[in-house]
Specification:
heterodimer; A: 298 residues; 2 domains; two-stranded antiparallel sheet; 1% strand; B: 813 residues; alpha/beta; D-Maltodextrin-Binding Protein, domain 2; 5 domains; six-stranded mixed β-sheet; 34 helices; 17 strands; globular
């Protein structure tokens, strides 16, 4: 009986303690939540301004401040941007999508291939080749622009999409290679060694061990590459001439001409351009949230 | 045998068919193939529609010509693209051009002189075009741009309601201005009108200003021109800068008096608080009663002020006042102007067809279409005066009646003045421009700012004008050096390891590794090495992208280190920006990623929200820059609120404007901090990388540590931070490389290749860009770029040396 009683009180005490710590936890969570919400409000200001302005008529934009919520929100700007035969939104959209998908695929495949030996193989000149890789990021593009243009001209690539996506298949850029190399270096080497003992060669290790364990890193590179190419302005500006070949970022500049800035249409266009990127990020996030539980360790 | 006739028939038919097909083919081949011309414009949506229609008409009238329209609305980048295309020998045939850009091309023979075409074209009379706009596009008696429009900035948009309320008659253009108000002249004195129209609210603040212009420079330049003085001795070939004179001081002091003391004109502070690049919105919101600018404001103005809407008020335009007594004591009227036209690139294969296109696009059909839409004042005077075309006629629809007094645009033409058109002047003026902002903000006294600026600018101008006796660049020698550089790089990579012996297994690994990196090696050979080596050669050249390159040796580098005042300024600004923004950004991203790695409700949503600015269009970020950091912006609303106002006052004092709320991007002391703060919005990229890094940390490490009794802080120190170091190291290296090359943000905020107030945001890449594409000194730009390259390289090497803190699983044994 006594024994039972004491077990009961012990249990009660334990329950009370849990409840207390739960309450503290909850308080902490609410506090964190408030901090995150404040920060998010700051980070959403650009988007807020875009949305608000895209829902106003030119007259309302002129008469109100940028922060004011539209009194009579209108979707007129969006329908104008989507249907203007002079500035073909869907034509641009198709071009942007093609370029972004082709180059993102190229970046994912080739930067992972190149990053692999830099992260875990020994080969002649590795460290200095890596420095060379980093060095290609250090020279401003302004001064290599004309020679590069001449190269593409000799390849007959001017006014085609090739200059915008083919280079992505040749290494995918120093930034992405470096990023993946850093992540690959975080994968314990015991895994490869075990595989080698089992008779696996490097392509097996790469495809069967490294790639499956690099979900978050690959998702990151994929999102970055897609964003970069979707948003790229200089590349399409330099290499595309025909209006029907323009990408969204280039073509929608038509609403932003000298002395003829149409803020309502610019902002509606900007919101539309963002949508695929938001969708991609939300979808790509699954990879971060899920995380990778590595089973290869002890 | 029965089938013979049939067979014959078949043969006959076939023969006939072949004959027909062949004859059609031959006739098609013998007819002249239509020539295809490439035609480039920077028109935006509205004028582009008109250009397209006019081109259709042109093709109908000229069946032997097909026109391929190419449009790039970004005005700055348009000219850059033209240069790159011309240098790579694939320029268009006909291109839109203006006075600020044609001279550089014309002096280098990249454009065709048009005079010989006039002479050969019956019925064409250049005298029909407004004389000033023809003159400004003429160089050494040759016309290079056939003007399509002219846009004098000598128009005053005025609010009729405001005039009615003050009981002042509407202006008829006969008014004058003087440095002092002359109340006895009443409405004939511009200053008196400005004074009368200024309304002061109960709080002592101005609720409506009398007057403003599109931008402070336009306002001051108009005073300057009508007072009878100019900024340089010769627009096309300037050799002397004339800002250091008592007359110029008088003009600038006049502006400061009106804007900062009398407050009849909004100061730079208020102007920064409005949305657009121009101050048009102040006029539409009735915060100013009179507004000076060119006619191009009309289409937008009509959209904002629709008759019948509640925003609407009656408005019109009037001619800008003359100066009552200029430096010679006479009445004098003058103001700046805009305008554009079409040029023919000298690389065209079809000059005659190109001329027909140019003539048509700068001819009556095109001008009528543009004028009727209210977009551009025709450059042909006869059309500008034709009722119903530009000047409203009886059949003009009501909404196109505004502004009614369109004759003012014609009256303005004889008085237009042009600024310096030589391509090296933007760089020279930038040495004064930065200081001018400080004058507008009341931070620097006029005399000191203009005197110092002029001295510096004049020295730079003299250097740029100095003729150097240079030998042509020897390409065989250049190629030899280029090959030597490539060999040198290969030696650098492989020489140190020449004695290292590889075992059989290591050799196999090495071969496998090279197979893996082969795409990159091929890519670097095809796309990267050539251009990089060429740009290295370029750094020893004097090269304007058009004429043959000359050998300048180390001249570009010594110029940068010893002569160019912008070099050291931009170096200081860039290093400061890099050293501040990168660590701050990484710490911020790290904290954010820890926060967003928690298992709390709504975290996925928060991640997306924090990532949002990284995928927002650059234009929207500019908006934020303007709206958040404006004097009346939301940041100041917090800083100067009841709770935080000591902070706000402290910043005001530090910024040199103790009585006002700080104008972040308009003030030389606060522009850099504002730039760094704005950069923090783009931290989403690093955050994602660090989040991915956090996800890569095996959870069993944490489980093991918890079992061993480690508290959260210990877990952070022993697991999270060490395992995140590879990702942090990546952010650090790429962050530094990126920060050294920061460009776009600044380019957008300062609206072109400028350095902001007192060049406080003159980052290195702005110098490189403007050397290359504003001043056309590609060799010098390449030298600057290579200086930057070596600085970044040294920084990176130091970081690699000090990378012992980075923990790699692959190294752990």
């Amino acid at each position: 009986m006594r024994n039972n009683m004491s077990v009961q009180t012990e249990l009660d005490r334990y329950r009370a303690a849990t409840r207390r710590s739960e309450r503290i936890n909850l308080l902490l969570k609410v506090l964190l939540w408030i901090v995150m919400l404040t920060g998010a409000a700051v980070f959403m200001t650009p988007f807020y301004l875009m949305i608000v302005m895209s829902l106003k008529t030119p007259a309302e934009i002129a008469a109100t401040t940028a922060w004011d919520i539209p009194k009579n929100p209108t979707l007129e700007n969006f329908s104008l941007v989507l249907t203007n035969p002079n500035v073909s939104f869907f034509g641009f959209f198709k071009n942007s999508l093609f370029v972004a998908i082709m180059s993102t695929t190229g970046v994912l495949v080739s930067s992972a291939l190149v990053a692999y030996p830099f992260s875990r193989l020994k080969f002649r000149g590795r460290d200095r080749l890596f420095l060379l890789l980093l060095a290609t990021m250090m020279l401003p593009g302004v001064v290599t622009m004309i020679p590069t243009y001449v190269v593409y001209k000799y390849l007959h690539w001017v006014d085609t999409f090739y200059p915008l996506w083919v280079p992505a298949w040749f290494g995918g850029g120093a930034f992405n290679i470096f990023l993946l190399r850093q992540f690959f270096m975080g994968i314990p080497r015991e895994l490869d060694e075990a595989a080698i003992l089992d008779g696996a060669n490097h392509s097996v290790i790469f495809w069967r061990i490294i790639m499956p364990l690099s979900g978050p890193a690959l998702a990151t590179v994929g999102i970055f590459a897609f964003n970069y190419n979707w948003r790229d302005f200089m590349g399409p500006l330099l290499y595309l001439n025909s209006p029907e070949k323009q990408t969204l970022e280039l073509g929608l500049q038509t609403y932003r001409a000298l002395n003829n800035e149409q803020w309502n249409l610019m902002m509606a266009g900007a919101v539309l351009v963002m949508i695929p990127l938001v969708v991609l990020f939300v979808a790509g996030q699954r990879w971060f949230v899920k995380g990778i539980v590595m089973t290869g360790g002890k | 045998m029965m089938c013979v006739p049939k067979f014959k028939k078949l043969v006959e038919t076939l023969r006939l068919a072949i004959f027909l097909v062949l004859s059609i083919v031959f006739s098609l081949a013998s007819a002249k193939e239509p020539v295809t011309l490439r035609f480039t414009v920077w028109d935006g949506d509205e004028s582009l529609k008109i250009v397209r229609n006019v081109l259709k008409e042109f093709e109908k009238q000229n069946p032997d010509i097909k026109v391929k329209l190419e449009n790039f609305a970004d005005y700055n980048m348009y000219h850059q693209k033209m240069m790159v295309m011309y240098a790579a020998n694939c320029a268009p045939d006909v291109a839109m051009m203006d006075m600020g850009h044609f001279q550089a091309l014309a002096t280098r023979k990249a454009l065709l002189p048009l005079n010989k075409f006039f002479a050969e074209t019956p019925g064409f009379n250049i005298k029909e075009y407004y004389e000033p706009i023809v003159k400004v596009h003429t160089l050494n008696n040759n016309l290079y741009v056939l003007p399509r429009d002219i846009a004098p900035e000598g128009l005053i948009y005025y609010n009729k309601k405001a005039f009615d309320e003050a009981g002042i008659p509407y202006p008829d253009g006969s008014w004058t201005w003087d440095f002092k108000e002359r109340p006895e002249l009443k409405e004939k004195d511009f200053l008196w009108v400005m004074h009368q129209l200024t309304k002061v609210g109960k709080d002592g603040k101005t609720s409506r200003y009398g007057f403003t212009a599109g931008w402070p420079g336009e306002l001051v330049d108009s005073f300057m021109y009508s007072y009878g003085i100019k900024a340089v001795d010769n627009d096309q070939h300037p050799t002397k800068i004339l800002y250091n004179s008592p007359d110029m001081f008088k003009v600038y002091n006049f502006y400061c008096d009106l804007a900062l003391k009398k407050k009849w004109i909004p100061s730079n502070q208020e102007v920064s608080s409005v949305l657009q690049s121009t101050t048009q919105q102040l006029f539409v919101q009735q915060k100013v009663a009179m507004y000076q600018n060119g006619i191009w404001e009309v289409p937008n103005m009509r959209k904002m002020l629709k008759p019948g809407s509640k925003e609407f008020f009656e408005w019109d335009i009037a001619l800008y006042p003359a100066c009552a007594k200029d430096i010679h004591g006479k009445e004098h009227r003058a103001f700046p102007t805009g305008g554009s036209g079409y040029s023919i690139f000298s690389s065209t294969k079809y000059p005659e067809e190109a001329w027909r296109l140019t003539k048509f696009m700068s001819g009556p059909v095109a001008m009528r279409a543009m004028a009727q839409a209210g977009i551009a004042q025709p450059a042909i005077r006869r059309l500008a005066l034709e009722p119903g075309v530009w000047v409203p006629g009886p059949n003009t629809p009501k909404e196109q009646m505004y502004p009614a007094n369109r004759l003012a645009t014609d009256q303005a033409v004889p008085f237009v003045e042009f600024g310096a058109t030589a391509e090296y002047m933007p760089e020279v003026f930038s040495l004064i421009d930065g200081r001018r902002d400080s004058i507008y903000n009341g931070i620097l006294p006029v005399e000191k700012a203009l005197k110092e600026g002029t001295q510096e600018a004049q020295t730079r101008l003299d250097q740029l004008l100095k003729e150097e006796d240079l030998a042509p660049f020897s390409w065989p020698a250049g190629i030899a050096v280029g090959l030597a550089v490539v060999v040198g790089i290969l030696a650098f990579i492989y020489w140190p390891e020449r004695k290292v012996k590889y075992t059989y297994r290591e050799k196999r690994e090495s071969v496998a590794a090279y197979k893996f990196i082969s795409p990159w090696l091929i890519g670097i050979c095809v796309f990267t090495v050539g251009p990089m080596v060429l740009s290295l050669l370029m750094s020893t050249m004097k090269w304007d992208m058009i004429r043959d390159a000359q050998w300048r040796g180390a001249g570009n580098f010594t110029e940068a280190f010893t002569q160019d005042p912008r070099f050291w300024v931009s170096m200081k600004v860039t290093i400061l920006f890099t050293l501040l923004s990168t660590p701050v950004g990484i710490i911020f991203a790290f904290l954010l990623s820890l926060l967003l790695n928690q298992k709390i409700r709504g975290v996925p949503l928060f991640r997306s929200m924090y990532y949002m600015p990284s995928i927002t269009s650059a234009v929207a970020l500019t908006l934020v820059a303007r709206k958040v950091f404006a004097p009346e912006g939301i940041l100041n609303a917090v800083l100067y609120s009841k709770v935080f106002h000591p902070i706000g006052e402290f910043i005001s004092k530090a910024a040199g404007t103790p009585t006002e709320q700080v104008n972040w991007f308009g003030n030389e002391h606060t522009a850099m901090p504002a730039l760094i703060l704005l950069g923090l919005l783009g931290v989403g990229g690093s955050m994602v990388i660090l989040l991915a890094g956090l996800q890569g940390i095996p959870t069993y490490y944490y489980e093991a540590a918890t079992v061993d009794g480690a508290n959260p802080f210990q877990r952070m120190k022993a697991i999270t931070v060490p395992l995140l170091t590879p990702a942090l190291f990546f952010c650090l290296i790429t962050g530094f490389i990126g920060a050294f090359q920061v460009f776009t943000q600044v380019f957008i905020i300062t609206n072109g290749p400028n350095g902001g107030p007192n060049n406080s945001m003159l980052v290195f890449m702005i110098s490189v860009f403007s050397a290359a594409f504003t001043t056309f000194r590609m060799g010098y730009a390449a030298a600057l770029a290579w200086v930057l390259f070596f600085i970044v390289l040294i920084f990176t090497l130091l970081q690699l040396r000090m990378s012992k803190w980075v923990y790699y699983e692959t190294d752990a044994k």
